[in-house]
Amino acid sequence: MSRKSVEQWLAEYGVSHQNPINKAIHWICVPLIYLVIFALLWEIPQPGWMESIPLFNWATAGMLFTMGFYYRLSPSLAKGLGVLTLLCLIAIVAYEYIWETPLWLTSVIAFVILWIMQFVGHHIEGKKPSFLKDVQFLLIGPAWVVAFIYRKLGISYQ
């Protein structure tokens, strides 16, 4: 079985993201879902060995795994996704300093609302979400957003 190229992944993802309303919903929801998933992972209790490493927890472990996936997909695209991932980490840490509402509660509520919006977008599009075909498309969504930005800026991600 051959590995798909970044272009193949993005083209296949794009098939079910043609409608302008669905695209707009995804532009908002995909990066926020990416953030919320890391926020939920941040809230999982850590085993003792993790506590001895500053800022290392289930979220940062997930970030490392995710960045490995993106680097394998496209080293250039991984740089932009690294910036997005770093912004997520900063947002999570900032949230904990600023807000009194538990991060897990805000994240669960946001997760539900954002996924409802995603399904509304796909209903409008008239096509099923890509991840129902292959769960890896859950990681392709953020890459699709960053790849669009790259194309607008004339940055290659091949």
Helix and strand layout, with pairings?
Layout: H1 6-15, H2 20-42, H3 48-51, H4 58-73, H5 75-98, H6 103-125, H7 137-153
Structure commentary:
- The protein is an all-alpha fold.
- It has one domain.
- The protein is built from 7 helices and no strands.
- Helix 4 (58-73) packs antiparallel against helix 5.
- The model has no long low-confidence stretch (mean pLDDT 91).
Q: Could you provide a short overview of the structure?
A:
By secondary structure, the chain is an all-alpha fold. The protein has helices at 6-15, 20-42, 48-51, 58-73, 75-98, 103-125, 137-153.
User: Uncertain segments of ≥5 residues (pLDDT<50)?
Assistant: none
Please write the string of helix (H) and strand (E) elements. Answer: HHHHHHH
How big a fraction of the residues is strand? under 5%
Q: Could you describe the largest sheet, including whether it forms a barrel?
A: none
